[in-house]
Amino acid sequence: MARASGLGSPQLRARDLEVVQSEVIACRACPRLVRWREQVADEKVARFANQEYWGRPVPAFGDPAARVMALGLAPAAHGANRTGRMFTGDRSGEFLFDALFRAGYASQPTSESLDDGMTLDGLWISAVNRCAPPANKPTTQERDHCLPFFERELALLADVRVVLCLGAFAWDGALRALGSMGIEVPKPKPRFGHGVEAAVGPYVLLGCFHPSQQNTFTGKLTPWMVDALLARARVLSEI
Q1: pTM above the 0.85 mark?
Q2: Does the domain made of 10-237 have the CATH classification 1.10.287.110?
Q3: Structural contact between residues 81 and 132, judged by C-beta atoms closer than 8 angstroms
């Protein structure tokens, strides 16, 4: 799949992106993930016992004119699988959206629900996998079933220049997707690392440790580290 051209206005892109997201939400391609996401939504956890879970694949969202895409691993079982929005309703999202707000990409520092008024400016948020996986570990087959959604989004987001890969799984997924789109991937394949930059066709991949609690609570990933990368992403996106 080649990069799209002549896509017209962001309004037209938004329409086409909505079509992709409707297909994401309806997807039942991976039986293990379907069973897990629905089981989690049915059984819930005590702190969210009175809430209705989304329990479906989680669509991407953001600005159709974005120049930066943030790419995650997959929805969290009691985060996005509950709220229906990427990185919304869990500790990883709290850390990420606070940073996006400081960087001017998000309209508010917290993202709690689909109707909380959150908007993004210049940024699109997506993930390699759209269903919450057991133990946060999709299989390679599940990854490959889902990557075409990301490829279609990236082809439609004609202004994107930087893909901020949140973790090694996202980094690898982005490289695989770009190769599938007919874009030449450097050899040897660029290795993930925090702050690593890799030029791949018209894009720059920018590596960032995932904002999971195991990274943010231990100090492996700090707010200033993310602030610095988001500042760098903005500079790269405007070149």
Answers
A1: yes
A2: no
A3: yes
